[in-house]
């Protein structure tokens, strides 16, 4: 007999509904899975058969053919175990076919017959709702994640026999409700800006960057607090909006990186790849492309410490995601686009020994060494970074000062206020911060006062700046004006933006 | 192969045959042979065809009898079964592959019937 059951897999950051067709008929006993299963799906044959046997059900020895449609996409979800098992049982007449209408199954099976959680349940359920499925069957581990989607009934049977009883109408199964998990006992020390003494300039720059979502390059001597500052940027960023949170949670769901409670991610991601990262690790890759660091940092911060130590090729691949806010990975098997709207923060020393430009220490590098060190950072890449700042050594009086520096909460309030202004202004264009504005929008939303106009013209002519840097300066000035709640951009805003762009000029080296 | 071993195999097969008949099976063919492929017993019960490979051993010294039904042996049985199922009277019938292990020690016989022991790969 024939049966068709629906399961799901993931493709990129979206779910994909898989129709599992099972035919079981007389003939030489065999068990074949067709429709481009990968290793984990092909192995499901053994798991499913054993799970059914251990649930005290009998599978007749027949010629069994299973087709996974659409047949041209490689299936890589072990979550297809459950639909295959249900399909087999309905094809052999154990479950009435009508009882599985409008149902979607996604869970891995243990040999014992228990349902186990899988990755990517959130995008699968979102897709399932869009395609009109009413009942979703998942493992208990995935309940909270599946419940993030409204208007579907989520069921979480413990094991295969419980599910069988339900589908046969012998037993009732209540729709699952949110499972509360005990809060973790580990007390996380919150990173707060008040931990960093001094560095007023850098803090101001990071506040502006956070307010407008601008990219930042920090150049400074070793031990001046660049890493500490960057790690605290998250604490001054506003919480994710509900739509942003859903996007981020989808990505983490696919990567299997959701926490135990499987709820919505509210905190902005902070990705901090080591400098030996490969290009594929950075932007994503693999035969079926998987998201890389820029995607995992979506709507959050991507922090590249020791910026020039990264391979040049790795840095250059960042150009497209920084500009487009999405990254397209093309491989033979699939071309996928991942979102990558990140705030890039880079930190570096000015030279290999680290002390170039410090008033007290002597730099031991030759001009050639310094050139070689900074040459890795190409013009186009640096051009995409709106704010370049210098982070000098902290003075002793600042370090030992008893006066506590401003806390993150206070700064976050100002940042949120500025972000709200931008959100209101940019909502019609589906953008949410100044850094995303294109040239046309910059023209539209960055009205300069006459004084500001003069200043910008002077700078542009004197420095022979690029057209892109002209736009970038206006964007940063827009953010500074937003922080002050001003509609027009005045000369002090332009002045600060110019200063932030050129505080540390790499060409000086 | 010594004559003694051959005789052991033949008597093992007839022991399995008696057992199957006792269990309600009708023996359809014995030593069904197509070229180099052979099936020891083909039995039928309630419309189900069973292709049975009988393995007889005097001791466990060389592993369980069923382990001797190697992949290659299975493929031969499958090939022969395929030919057998082509016959008009059997086409489209349900079938399966069984292995019967027969032990003979100190003149005593015992038997282990493994139903659905393998399938077409």
Structural description of this entry:
- The complex is a heterodimer of chains A (509) and B (121).
- Chain A has 509 residues and is of the alpha/beta class.
- Chain A folds into two domains: 2-167, 2-Layer Sandwich (Ribosomal Protein S5, domain 2); 193-398 and 407-508, Rossmann fold, CATH 3.40.50.300.
- Chain A has helices at residues 39-42, 44-54, 81-91, 121-130, 143-146, 160-167, 200-212, 226-231, 242-254, 279-283, 293-296, 312-316, 319-324, 367-375, 379-383, 396-399, 408-426, 439-445, 450-463, 467-484, 491-502; strands spanning 2-11, 14-25, 30-34, 63-69, 103-106, 108-109, 115-116, 135-138, 153-155, 216-220, 270-271, 284-285, 290-291, 301-304, 326-330, 335-339, 343-348, 387-391.
- In chain A, helix 5 (143-146) links the parallel strand 8 and strand 9.
- The model of chain A has no long low-confidence stretch (mean pLDDT 88).
- With 121 residues, chain B is an alpha+beta fold.
- Chain B has one domain: Trna Endonuclease, Chain: A, domain 1 (3-Layer(aba) Sandwich).
- Chain B has a five-stranded mixed sheet with strand order 1-2-3-4-5.
- In chain B, a hairpin with a 2-residue loop joins strand 4 (95-105) and strand 5 (108-118).
- The longest helix of chain B has 20 residues, at 3-22.
- Chain B starts with a helix and ends with a strand.
- The mean pLDDT of chain B is 90.
- At the A-B interface, loops of A face helix 2 and strand 4 of B.
Topology (elements, then pairings):
The complex is a heterodimer of chains A (509) and B (121).
Chain A: E1 2-11, E2 14-25, E3 30-34, H1 39-42, H2 44-54, E4 63-69, H3 81-91, E5 103-106, E6 108-109, E7 115-116, H4 121-130, E8 135-138, H5 143-146, E9 153-155, H6 160-167, H7 200-212, E10 216-220, H8 226-231, H9 242-254, E11 270-271, H10 279-283, E12 284-285, E13 290-291, H11 293-296, E14 301-304, H12 312-316, H13 319-324, E15 326-330, E16 335-339, E17 343-348, H14 367-375, H15 379-383, E18 387-391, H16 396-399, H17 408-426, H18 439-445, H19 450-463, H20 467-484, H21 491-502
Parallel strand pairs in A: 3-4, 5-8, 8-9, 10-17, 10-18, 11-14, 14-17
Antiparallel strand pairs in A: 1-2, 2-4, 6-7, 12-13, 15-16
Chain B: H1 3-22, E1 26-34, E2 37-45, E3 48-57, H2 71-85, E4 95-105, E5 108-118
Parallel strand pairs in B: 3-4
Antiparallel strand pairs in B: 1-2, 2-3, 4-5
């Amino acid at each position: 007999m024939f049966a068709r059951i629906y399961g799901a897999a993931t493709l990129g950051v979206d779910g994909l509904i898989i129709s599992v067709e099972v035919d079981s008929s007389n003939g030489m006993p065999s068990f074949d899975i067709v429709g481009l299963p990968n290793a984990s799906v092909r192995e499901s044959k053994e798991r499913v058969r054993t799970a059914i046997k251990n649930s005290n059900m009998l599978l007749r020895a027949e010629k069994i053919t299973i087709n996974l449609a659409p047949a041209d996409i490689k299936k890589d979800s072990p979550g297809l175990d459950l639909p295959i098992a249900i399909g087999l049982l309905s094809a052999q007449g154990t479950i009435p076919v009508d009882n599985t209408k409008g149902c979607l199954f996604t869970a891995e099976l243990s040999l014992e017959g228990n349902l186990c959680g899988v990755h990517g349940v959130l995008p699968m359920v979102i897709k399932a709702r869009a395609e009109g499925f009413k009942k979703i069957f998942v493992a208990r581990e995935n309940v909270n994640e599946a419940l993030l989607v409204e208007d579907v009934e989520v069921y979480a049977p413990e094991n295969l026999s419980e599910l069988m009883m339900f589908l046969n109408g012998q037993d009732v199964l209540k729709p699952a409700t949110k499972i509360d998990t005990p809060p973790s006992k580990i007390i996380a020390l919150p990173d707060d800006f008040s931990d960093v003494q001094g560095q007023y300039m850098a803090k101001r720059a990071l506040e502006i960057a956070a307010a407008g979502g601008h990219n930042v390059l920090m150049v400074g001597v070793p031990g001046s607090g660049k890493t500490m500052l960057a790690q605290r940027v998250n604490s001054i960023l506003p919480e994710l909006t509900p739509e942003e949170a859903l996007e981020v949670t989808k990505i983490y769901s696919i990567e299997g990186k959701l926490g135990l409670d499987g709820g919505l991610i509210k905190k902005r991601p902070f990705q901090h790849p080591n400098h030996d990262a490969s290009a594929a690790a950075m932007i994503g890759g693999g035969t079926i492309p998987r998201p890389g660091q820029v995607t995992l940092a979506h709507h959050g911060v991507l922090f590249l410490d020791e910026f020039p130590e990264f391979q040049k090729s790795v840095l250059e691949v960042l150009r497209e995601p920084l500009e487009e806010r999405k990254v397209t990975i093309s491989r033979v098997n699939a071309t996928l686009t991942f979102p990558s709207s990140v705030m890039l923060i880079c930190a570096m020393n000015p030279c290999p020994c680290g002390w170039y430009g410090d008033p007290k220490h002597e730099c031991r590098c030759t001009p050639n060494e310094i050139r070689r060190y900074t040459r890795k950072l190409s013009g186009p890449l640096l051009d995409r970074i709106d704010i370049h700042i210098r982070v000098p050594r902290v003075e002793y009086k600042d370090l030992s000062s008893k006066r506590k520096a401003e806390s993150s909460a206070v700064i976050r309030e100002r940042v949120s206020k500025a972000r709200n202004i931008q959100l209101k202004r940019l909502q019609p264009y589906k953008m949410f911060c100044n850094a995303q504005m294109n040239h046309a929008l910059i023209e539209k939303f960055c009205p300069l006062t006459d004084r500001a106009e003069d200043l910008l013209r002077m700078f542009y002519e004197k420095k022979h700046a690029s057209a892109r840097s002209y736009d970038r300066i206006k964007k940063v000035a827009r953010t500074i004006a937003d922080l002050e709640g001003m509609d027009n951009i005045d000369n002090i805003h332009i002045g600060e933006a110019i200063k932030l762009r050129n505080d540390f000029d790499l060409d000086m080296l | 192969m010594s004559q003694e071993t051959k005789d052991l195999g033949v008597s093992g097969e007839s022991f399995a045959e008696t057992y199957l008949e006792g269990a309600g099976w009708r023996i359809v063919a014995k030593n069904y042979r197509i070229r180099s492929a052979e099936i020891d017993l083909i039995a039928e019960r309630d419309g189900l065809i069973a292709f049975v490979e009988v393995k007889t051993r005097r001791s466990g010294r060389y592993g369980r009898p069923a382990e001797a039904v190697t992949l290659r042996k299975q493929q031969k049985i499958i090939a022969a079964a395929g030919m057998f199922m082509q016959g008009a009277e059997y086409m489209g019938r349900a079938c399966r592959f069984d292995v019967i292990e027969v032990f003979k020690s100190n003149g005593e016989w015992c038997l282990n019937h493994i139903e659905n022991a393998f399938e077409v790969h």
